[in-house]
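INFO batch 0412 | record 1 of 1 | parsing
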Amino acid sequence: MRKKTWGAALLAVGVVAGLGACSTGGGDSAEEGQSLTMLIGSSGDAETQAVQAAADAWSEESGNTVEVVAASDLTQQLSQGFAGDDAPDLFYMSWDQFATYASNNYLEPYAEQLPNAGDFYPALQDTFTYNGTFTCAPKDFSTLGLIINTDMWAAAGLTDADIPTDWDSLEAAATKLTTATTVGLSFGLEYARIGVFMNQAGGQLVDGDTVTADSPENLAGLQYVQKLHDAGVLKWPSEISAGWGGEALGAGKAAMVIEGPWIKGIQGDFPDTKYAAYELPEGPGGKSTFTFTNCWGIPAGSETRDAAVNLVEFLTSDDQQLAFGDAFGVLPSTESAAATYAEQHPENASFVAGNDYAVSPVNFAGSATVISDFNAQLESLAGGDAKAILESLQTNLQAALDEANAN
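INFO prediction complete | emitting tokens
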């Protein structure tokens, strides 16, 4: 039984446990008549319905059935499923949890055997490679871009020639767009947004086995963000009564935000908001953006492994990924499908282009806890000591990396 092994290991690494109710089907091959459970972290009804439709289509072809469960808290429900030997047969595995699960041998390393294994973006393959093994197939990806409210842009007298391409022009546009009721720029006060400025300054958090969080480059990135905030042309969403950047943009509280292709989701609440997406401006260290992705995880030793792998092959086909992109805005994880998507959805072409130089946020076993602490410390960034924040991150991240390397 896997129950004792998984449960003890999950407690040892401190993975949060919560409510879960997923089951592993029977059988030992991809034969017909198997019942699979798929656990997803859905962005909303559009994604849930699209995944269910794809699962139903595969079921009709394969003779198997799939129950799609949209998690209320994917991390909790997935960890509970593993701890109780009740893991789903297929699930979304996030980039920031992957190393923890892979290092504890929870994941079936199947991706290298897929017929389209060589078609995925190399950066996405790297994200889901552990100890040299491409473990699970990336289901799609998203990058960050600069989203501009085009009506506000025009009202401020700005043109295409003013589209920010570097930090100076970003500051100039944000200044021009800031009014008594609207801030020029807004994005979340978290590593997943602010980290791109650190990267654009030429910084990185980890270089091989060495943490470089307190580098001059990372400090320059944080100080640039501080400068914009001190000037009043940048505000966090919470400062303008918005839950996230998309709400700030849609409600007209911010003229520019840094978000990904999921910005499409604001159309339901703010159908009259017009916007355009551009690549993030270049910093003194060059271009950079983050890429976020999930893979299709399969439990190690799963009794429904073969059927689940066959389902992943179906779900990661170019046609199916393009259908997902049409339904809820995600970008295909294969280079060929992404190129087609960019042609079919020119409004999102900048997000696809960004993946040519995108990097994944820091990701190794134990790093997620440190980044959560870093996010908490960023609450004091405005008017605070950026150098001290990075020094704390340096200490904590190095300790986590040393521990991960020792295990």
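INFO post-check: Residues 1-29 have pLDDT under 50 and may be disordered.
INFO record closed
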